[in-house]
Inverse folding.
């Protein structure tokens, strides 16, 4: 058996081998050690002289343990007994029946129903080919000299399969939005991949070769040429990637893949470009911290009823549209469902009857299906005519089209409904799921079996009467079939014809020739009925299989309807408005709310804000204000509203007019890429460079605190020139949140720049955040106030207040070094605890120098008196000057904070 194990282990590479032994799956050697650690299994061994580590679990827990292994980033091979141990001669034959990896899962129990599970292959274009294409001037415009990468991604659980060719520098963006589960690359590929976030599987280079790939695809789609899929004009590397995906799926899956019956080209220009850093920081499908769906935009706004709808919504958010007409088509549909409450409630309750057909079809095709799956398909099909009739009076084009294309597949539905009982079992093996009256042959076999049982019941009564043995029971066991059980008290009454088979503590078990005769009839009828049921099941499965493409099309429509109904429900529930889309560079939002905070904060707690950009209102808004005022929230809100609108959703605002954008960039908060050996500032600048190099006049850029990771002057200068570049050279719409008050001067020189700030109320040394965006620039940073709110120790805050005060008095740190370095021992406070400003005024008052320069020993009393008079006059003159300019402290406050914001930060 261990030889059999070794052979299987060799065939499955680095995957953990789950080896079926009777009712258990066992792991051996190092696999056992890994499993013991990862799955919490007990590590044991059988043979003390030759202890082989082993660990195992009961067979019915396979799904649970597989799911854990996959989530922990392992591959697992399942080696099954492929012979019936009862009939097998010698060692039971075993085979690896599936290789499960994160990107090739088909079992519903191993997948998150609300998330897509993509296997991606990527193939960089060969350098030789690149040069040749460049020399020949071949390829599409802009692609000739570009370093392109072929990408293909498939979800085996639903059969969806896409390809595209992407610029090398945009591959990471696409991968982030796809949220790939596993990536295939060639062993010799040097592409940098996020290996700590996703499983990367390296494969031999030949499996990415063009010829192999083309052959694999033609075989898969049963076509002589790939031209019909619209991928023939794409780069060869695309075909290589697509071929590699299919090749890998075949190898791991070991079942049919015929539900992957086409490949669709993914046209990037149709969708808003969002780079990976922006994608992450906008927290569209996952939160930045923790990476969970909960708390992300998707997690908060998903009102879909089915997992298919949730996945569709996730794809819409990951791929907002750039075509105004397509966007408006979705808005029309959402609007119609919003405006028609009976349609809305009808659709939602209809969706309650719909199962995850996309994934169920794949299970049918791959022969991993159960009667319950088939019934789910049948029930889903029964809901189709209902949805069709609900939509029969639809007015907008999209709903009309979906209505027309919904296909009830009547013949299939009728057949399944007629064949399957109302509550089907989850496994086919034990039968009992075909409805009575569906198949005559099955019915007669069942009758025979039940008839036989009835005979046995009658026989028992007859024997009891004949022998006078009361309470004689008829039982059944696998070893000697039906028997009669007589308690020891009645042993003497047993007739001679009874054949004793077993002695128990209090009873004896017998068989009789008559009983045996009927037993045979019953058992063979039962076996025949089961075999017949299996045959019928296979026929039904085949019937479903031939409907694959119609069912797939239906699933797509149902998912779309669910996503639209979900968006409509959200819009009604949260009082969203339909955004008016335009082709101008403009953004006009009245009472906009951040879609996530608006929902998770208590009702009415979120302060709505307006945005007016473009058409004479400036395209580059500088937003100043203290930390915690709500700057990031506001600029994210604008980006998320635009993204939602272009994904087809209504938006959280009283009204919105949104010019369609081609790209959304969000540089919000520093992402920690220290593991990649890059400093926070380096990451910030890399991301900024990306924006400056790729944004267009149609793009929306939100920037938060650019230049913060370096010295103040560096930072201000960089932020300043970035604003100028975006304004003068790109002309994109931009919201720039900044600490640097200096930047607000740009409003005077750059036509498209406008200053805004988040209003704050100061009261008794405390500040109250109003979270309201108002026109104009902020006058203070309030950093120390915020530090106090955050619980920084009082002594630290007091000392910071002293330093600030001194910095405000002098013009730079160098000149004030001594004064700054010397802390005031006990800061003076008034009765309310406020720090008192020093009485003596500026530390560098000229009188101080005069006093220092005096030599009293050389002065006459008269000179000294005169000197005192002159100082007094000087001080009185100063006080008069100060009085005519307002109070001393007010001047200091507003003067210097602007020049040294870093100190307040
Ligand atoms: P900043 O970027 O100015 O430091 P944030 O945008 O991070 O400030 O906001 C700080 C906190 O203020 C947020 O976590 C949020 O809870 C709250 N907040 C921001 N904007 C609003 C608003 N419009 N209404 C209510 N609370 C808000």
């Amino acid at each position: 058996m261990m030889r059999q194990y070794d052979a299987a282990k060799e065939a499955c590479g680095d995957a953990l081998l789950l080896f079926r032994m009777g009712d258990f799956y066992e792991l051996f050697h190092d696999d056992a050690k890994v499993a013991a650690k990862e799955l919490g299994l007990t590590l044991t061994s059988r043979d003390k002289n030759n202890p082989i580590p082993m660990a195992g679990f009961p067979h019915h827990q396979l799904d649970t343990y597989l799911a854990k292994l996959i989530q922990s980033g392992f591959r697992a091979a399942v080696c099954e007994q492929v012979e019936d141990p009862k009939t097998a001669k010698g060692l039971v034959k075993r085979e690896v029946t599936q290789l499960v990896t994160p990107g090739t899962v088909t079992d519903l129990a191993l997948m998150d129903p609300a998330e897509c599970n993509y296997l991606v292959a990527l193939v960089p274009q060969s350098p030789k080919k690149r040069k040749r294409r460049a020399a020949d001037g071949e390829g599409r415009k802009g692609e000739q000299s570009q370093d392109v990468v072929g990408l293909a991604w498939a979800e085996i659980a639903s059969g969806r399969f896409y390809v595209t060719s992407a610029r090398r520098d945009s591959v990471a963006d696409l991968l982030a939005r796809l949220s790939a589960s596993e990536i295939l690359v060639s062993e010799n590929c040097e592409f940098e991949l996020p290996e700590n976030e996703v499983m990367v599987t390296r494969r031999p280079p030949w499996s990415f070769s063009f010829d192999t790939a083309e052959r694999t695809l033609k075989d898969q789609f049963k076509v002589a040429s790939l031209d019909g899929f619209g991928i023939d004009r794409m780069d060869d590397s695309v075909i290589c990637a697509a071929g590699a995906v299919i090749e890998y799926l075949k190898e791991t899956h070991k079942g049919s893949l015929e539900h992957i019956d086409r490949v669709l080209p993914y046209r990037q220009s149709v969708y808003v470009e969002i780079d990976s850093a922006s994608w992450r920081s906008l927290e569209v499908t996952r939160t930045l911290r923790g990476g969970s769906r909960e708390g992300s935009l998707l997690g908060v706004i998903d009102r879909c009823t089915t997992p298919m709808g949730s996945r569709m919504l996730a794809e819409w958010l990951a791929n907002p549209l750039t075509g105004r007409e397509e966007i408006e088509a979705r808005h029309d549909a959402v609007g119609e469902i919003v405006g028609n409450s009976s349609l809305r409630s009808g659709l939602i309750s209809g969706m309650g009857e719909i199962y995850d057909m996309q994934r169920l079809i794949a299970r049918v095709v791959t022969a991993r299906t159960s009667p319950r799956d088939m019934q789910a398909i049948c029930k889903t099909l029964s809901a189709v005519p209902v949805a069709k009739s609900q939509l029969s009076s639809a007015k907008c084009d999209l709903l009309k089209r979906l209505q027309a294309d919904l296909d009830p597949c009547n013949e299939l539905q009728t057949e399944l409904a007629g064949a399957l009982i109302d509550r089907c079992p989850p496994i086919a093996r034990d039968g009992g799921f075909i409805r009575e009256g569906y198949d005559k042959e099955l019915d007669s076999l069942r009758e025979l079996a039940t008839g036989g049982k009835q005979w046995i019941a009658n026989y028992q009564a007859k024997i009891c009467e004949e022998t006078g043995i009361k309470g004689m029971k008829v039982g059944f066991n696998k070893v000697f079939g039906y028997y009669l059980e007589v308690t020891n008290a009645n042993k003497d009454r047993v007739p001679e014809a009874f054949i004793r088979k077993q002695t128990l503590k209090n009873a004896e078990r017998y068989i009789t020739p008559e009983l045996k005769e009927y037993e045979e009839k019953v058992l063979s009828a039962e076996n025949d009925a089961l075999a017949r049921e299996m045959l019928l099941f296979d026929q039904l499965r085949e019937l479903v299989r031939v409907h694959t493409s119609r069912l797939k099309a239906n699933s797509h429509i149902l998912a779309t309807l669910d996503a639209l109904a979900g968006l409509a429900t959200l819009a009604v529930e949260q009082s969203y408005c339909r955004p008016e889309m335009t082709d101008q560079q403009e953004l006009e939002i009245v009472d906009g709310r951040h879609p996530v905070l608006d929902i998770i904060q208590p009702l009415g707690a979120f302060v709505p804000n307006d945005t007016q950009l473009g058409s004479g209102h400036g395209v580059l808004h500088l937003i100043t204000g203290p930390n915690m005022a709500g700057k990031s929230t506001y600029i994210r809100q604008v980006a998320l509203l635009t993204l939602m609108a272009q994904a087809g959703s209504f938006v959280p605002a009283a009204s919105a007019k949104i010019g369609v954008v081609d790209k959304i960039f969000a540089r919000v908060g520093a992402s920690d890429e220290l593991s990649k050996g890059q400093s926070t500032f380096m990451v910030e600048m890399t991301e900024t460079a990306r924006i400056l190099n790729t944004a267009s006049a149609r793009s929306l850029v939100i920037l938060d605190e650019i230049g913060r990771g370096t010295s103040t002057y560096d930072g201000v200068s960089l932020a300043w020139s970035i604003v100028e570049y975006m304004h003068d050279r790109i002309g994109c719409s931009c919201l720039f949140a900044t600490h640097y008050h200096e930047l607000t001067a740009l409003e005077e020189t750059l036509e498209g720049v406008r200053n805004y700030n988040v209003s704050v109320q100061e009261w008794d040394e405390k500040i109250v955040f109003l979270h309201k965006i108002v026109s104009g620039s902020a006058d203070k940073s309030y950093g120390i106030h915020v530090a106090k709110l955050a619980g920084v120790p009082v002594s630290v805050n007091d000392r910071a207040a002293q330093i600030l005060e001194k910095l405000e008095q002098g013009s730079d740190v160098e000149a004030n070094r001594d004064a700054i370095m010397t802390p005031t021992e006990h800061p003076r406070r008034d009765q309310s605890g406020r720090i008192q400003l020093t009485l003596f005024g500026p530390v560098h008052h000229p009188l101080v120098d005069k006093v220092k320069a005096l030599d009293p020993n050389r002065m006459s009393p008269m000179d000294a008196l005169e000197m005192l008079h002159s100082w007094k006059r000087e001080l009185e003159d100063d006080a008069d000057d100060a009085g005519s300019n307002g109070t001393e402290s007010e001047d200091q406050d507003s003067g210097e904070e602007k020049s040294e914001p870093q100190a307040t930060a």
